[in-house]
Write a structure and sequence with these properties.
By secondary structure, the chain is an alpha+beta fold. It contains twelve helices and eight strands. Bound molecules: flavin-adenine dinucleotide (FAD).
Length: about 400
Amino acid sequence: MDDQLSPRIRALQELAREVVEAHVAPHAGEVDAQAAWPAHSMKAFAEAGLMGLQVPTPLGGHGQGLVALSVLTEAIGRACPSSALCFGMHCVGTAVIAAKASPVHEERYLRPIAHGRHITTLSLSESGSGTHFYLPRTRLTQLDDGFIIDGEKQFTTNGGHADSYVLSVAPANGESPQAGDFSCVVLDAETDGIEWLQPWAGLGMRGNSSRGLRLTRARVPAANLLGEQGDQLWYVFEVVAPYFLMAMAGTYLGIAQAALEATGLHLRSRRYAHSGDALADADVLQHRYAAMWMAVEKTRGLVREAAARGDAGHAEALPYILACKADAGDTAVQVTNDAMTLCGGMAYRENSRIAQMLRDARASHVMAPTTEVLKLWLGRSLLGVPML
Ligand SMILES: Cc1cc2nc3c(=O)[nH]c(=O)nc-3n(C[C@H](O)[C@H](O)[C@H](O)COP(=O)(O)OP(=O)(O)OC[C@H]3O[C@@H](n4cnc5c(N)ncnc54)[C@H](O)[C@@H]3O)c2cc1C
């Protein structure tokens, strides 16, 4: 399927694979074992010029869209899912800033991102609204010369390590927020009034530093507001959702691909002393391995189709984009679970690579929009029922 990618995206994929092999894969075990944010991966991506994937070319970036994002997160997720999540959320934050960037946003954020000197990320989730991330309660109060932000975010990937955070905030005078009744602002890391909550210690995705963020009278310049008032549903459906869903679909597809490869290797190499037969000689295991391969290839086909439709502005891109993260999550969980069975006791060892993949894959179903909510939205969009 890679041979259908454009030469430019093939070259970026090749570069990402080289960086992953040299700098990311060797440390993936430590990232998981120590729940360590992958600074080495982000540095390597920056040095290779990959951090500006979503920055327009006139500003020094690659000017790429959804296909490149899904291809690169897949390449990274195959070796270190936490690194793919950190890189992916940086790319989503970048795409949100770039969507309607002012000259200030270009100089302060997008050029430094393109030159590998700035990491950003997306901070939408709150405990009050959970998976319904489009209903923030973090409040934005307008002052003469800017804004004050008060509230609390949960699960911010790259939390405490990024240079800026793209936040969703509701107007302070609103009663209870309506879907889309919010603004997006960029918060600089050094802003007074920011407090990072507990360090991240998850079942999986252990290196992504997904942390709570308390904001107490945090002052943000007026120039840091993204887009115009009333643009926000446009942001959710045109930028946040497609870029986020594609970054996650690529990451979980990468996990599924890695589990498939590890299983193939084990089935071929594990031989019984009494017969000399390999596991690969058993009919049932051949059959189950075929089903794993089919699931991975079907998911890759859906992800690539969704990304291509999104980049082309195809009128029917939305159902594909909604489906691809839900499907990649289902495939990653199913294939890593099958890998755990087919690779036997080797996989069931404490902290085996397959155990790590299974734990990482499980994050897909709880990351908003969750698998449940995506299937709900997909059904509604196919049936012509309003999604929200
Ligand atoms: C590893 C990781 C990284 C993350 N990174 C980020 C990040 O960078 N930025 C960010 O903003 N957020 C991030 N999140 C947060 C995430 O996107 C979700 O907001 C969060 O996980 C929701 O958790 P919750 O427990 O509040 O869900 P809840 O809202 O309590 O939902 C619990 C379950 O109920 C289901 N559910 C709820 N309502 C419905 C419904 N109407 N129909 C069907 N099912 C429903 C959900 O699908 C879910 O399975 C991250 C989360 C994880 C796990």
